[in-house]
Predict the 3D structure of the following.
Amino acid sequence: MQTKLADFIKNSPEGQEADEILRSCVHCGFCLATCPTYQLLGDELDSPRGRIYLMKQLLEGQPVTEKTQLHLDRCLTCRACETTCPSGVRYGALVDIGRGIVEKQVKRNLYSEVMRFTLRKVLPNALLFNTLFKAGQLVRPMLPSSLKKKIPARLGTAQTWPAARHARAMLVLDGCVQPALAPNINAACARVLDRLGISLIKAEKAGCCGAVTFHLNAQTEGLDYMRRNIDAWWPYVEQEKAEAIVMTASGCGVTVKDYGHLLSHDREYAEKAATISAMTKDISEILLTEKDRLQKLIESKKDGNQTKLAFHSPCTLQHGLKIRGTVEQILVATGFDLTVVPNAHLCCGSAGTYSILQPELSQQLLKNKVDALQSGQPDQIATANIGCLTHLQNGAAISVKHWIELIDQRLSAL
């Protein structure tokens, strides 16, 4: 694709990156076949190729309108198009740049401004979110059904977190909403790793990965969250007290693994950010490297009982982190019987705050995903991201759990 970027951006780092990405697109249209919004709406401007044309126009200085904003807002940033693209177009990075420019040039209405401001102030603040969530549970019986189903009546509790006792240690990110919505996920991860001779520890000052605010186009604010986490983890890195940073939410994982890129132009943080990104691992990557030890545990405790399980691979896992088949391999090795899930590459509609900001499209995607997951008549559904987990719970008729909790339950029970 030929480009001629406008003066306001062409000499900036963002402009140079955008230009490189735009030029890699060859207009083939392969991305249309795997774009969830294009499949639902049939409008090319709601496809990656169409949105790339819109972003090319704005980067070349053509007028930006509410229509441009609408089509970019409708994008889930699921990055299925990146998996499909034969030219390796880094669409996710381009849409972040494009959205940031549109946000500065197109004023939103008051409702949208207030909603986005509230989301980026409440969700990343674990204490505030937990307080408001508990308040929501108290008034849940009085809420309309559309809101009631978004607030679980009961939440799981965190079980025992093993004390740090091993020579090997890894950090884990608590995140923002996961401690309130599913506090046992990281505790289960700690117990599984403890059995493998690895202690899982938390840096108390680490919090939201920065994805929520960054993808709501408050990108400077999002980068500040990223710097805060780097500062919280750096003493452990410097003193070699942790060999990796473990992610149990693939949505956080794809963001933290991108710190090196996102902060590459920050002189103070660029080198540290690159180190943090290199150390960051999804929990499935850790268990895959420890498969021999895990296999010994499994074989010593394995019985003939198999739970029929449907695994939902989040977009952030399969398209963002490009981890495919690893969780499934671990689940099968641990004694689960996996069902076939049609169209497993498609998004469930959660996509961070998408389910709140684009409820109609999100609900259509949720229905399609739940139908696909339940088509094999599983006993349970497993996933790898807290956002997908809570979204799927709103539509599924059966239990939805993080897969590491199921591994922990299996190892504890056998």
Summary: The chain has three domains: 7-105, 168-285, 291-413. The longest strand covers residues 168-172.
